[in-house]
UniProtKB/TrEMBL annotation:
UniProt topology in membrane: Multi-pass membrane protein
Record keyword Transmembrane present: yes
UniProt main location, coarse: membrane
Keyword presence, Plastid: no
Listed PROSITE patterns: MFS (PS50850)
SUPFAM superfamilies linked: MFS general substrate transporter
PANTHER family hit by this protein: CHLORAMPHENICOL EFFLUX PUMP RV0191, PURINE EFFLUX PUMP PBUE
Gene3D superfamilies with a match to the protein in the record: MFS general substrate transporter like domains
Regions that span the bilayer: 21-38, 58-82, 89-109, 115-137, 149-170, 176-198, 223-242, 254-275, 287-304, 310-335, 347-366, 372-392
Protein known as: MFS transporter
Compartments (UniProt record): Cell membrane
Amino acid sequence: MTHVQESSGARAGRPTPARNGWWGVAVLALGTFTVVTSEMLPVGLLTPMGSSLGIPEGVAGLTLTITGLVAAVSAPALVPLLGRADRRTALCVLVTVLVVGNLGAAWAPDFGTMVVARVLVGVGMGGVWAVAAGLAVRLVPAKSAGAATTLVFSGIAVASVLGVPAGTYLGDLAGWRAAFLAAAGLGAVVLVAAALLLPRLPAERTVPLGGALRLTRDPRLRTGLIVVGFLVTGHFAAYTYVRPVLEDVSGVGAGTIGVLLLVYGIAGVAGNFLAGAGAARSPRRTLLVIGTVLTLTVVALPWLGGSPALAAVLMALWGLGYGGVSVSTQTWVLLAAPDAREAASSLFVGVFNAAIALGALAGGLVADGIGITAVTVAGAVLVAGALVTTAAGRAPVPEAPAVSGKS
């Protein structure tokens, strides 16, 4: 940890690390898991949602686009607006907004109501993710800051790979509305846990929106954000519509779809921890491997996924690759701006969620205009763009303390 971070933490009233410090980190990890799961629930529920609300699958995919766009705008905007507000209080308010949004989605009788609900989910998600990113280092001893931060980000990665199959299973068992109710219940658990287990967390220092945007003048941070944009847009252009793609290519039913998504999720958890260790040593090399795996896997799915067994292999490789995206790109961003973690994280969250929204929108346009399996080609082309940017752009070089802290 840098001297600036240490001193700012002290000025901000960093709590003395105690027995419940790691409990607070666990609350933050559960919070990031909850918000990202809430955002991505529609991925595994597009077919029944569209049927219930009377809309086509491409339009149903907009429920993901709307949430991502709102989170992309709210994340960098909320951090300056929060000013000197205690971060524990801010988190509780933002989680409450998330809970209300999920309850609204579960109740929504029509698409218009669903849109309003998903806007609320986007506000809560963008704020929680951006604020939580910089809090872990204040809850544990300095020597454990890297591990604590990685744990918080693992909530994002695990949600990305397990939240969708869990929601799909629940949707098949009890209906798609039950999945949103479960997300609201999980948010209520986070709210209570944050109020009880987090200490007071005064703001460290405020950064105006213009100050956060000025960070992009650093070519290392700018390159990292561009890589995030390409990777995440490409992934979600294909993954948002993975259920109808698998139904079309493999001819499998809802139960098998759930199994394939579970395979993807388990592989993704492994990918998160493998990539976390690799990114600490070389974020560029790790992202080159991830980009290569994703490009080849996504483009191969329509041609090799006709067999459920081969589809399972491809989904496992896809999960292994994408499971490492959030921790690798977040590591890149934090290494590029070690003295402005919260501001850089808000930009990261903004770009990440704008890319989710753009990917879902692009995939919907391709699916409705060309055909459902064409989304995999579009996704692979965009991920290839991330490969080129990673190879050609400037990358941060981890120093020895950063490597040991992240490993």
